[in-house]
Known about the structure:
Elements: H1 4-21, E1 35-37, E2 43-45, E3 49-59, E4 64-69, E5 73-81, H2 87-90, E6 97-103, E7 115-119
Antiparallel strand pairs: 1-2, 3-4, 3-6, 4-5, 6-7
Amino acid sequence: MVTGRKRARLEVVRDECLAGADQMDDSPPLQPAGLIPRDDGYTVWTRPWRTQIHVISVDYAIPEMYIQIPGWTSDEVIKLSLGILPWKVRLKLHQDFRCHAMVNLGADGAADLTFSDWETE
């Protein structure tokens, strides 16, 4: 139930909104947090999600590893530098190793992927 005081306040707020409508410009709307506009018109969702990382193989001589991200695409093999891993993860790496990391699963391609907060357990 709207009392007289509340009704008066609602009318004031409505009038303020209507008065501001003629002052609006034609600027584009703000992008939601996590969206980065790109030149081709598409956007890359940058919000990271905790997901499983499957290490296919590790090459310490290069040093690189090949991984799959089942939550992103299960068939694409991605090459990563071991330099992005924390030491606690590097020490446990082996073929067919599984761990978790925060990854932006909305990325369009492997080059757009970001990794952080690696977990081994």
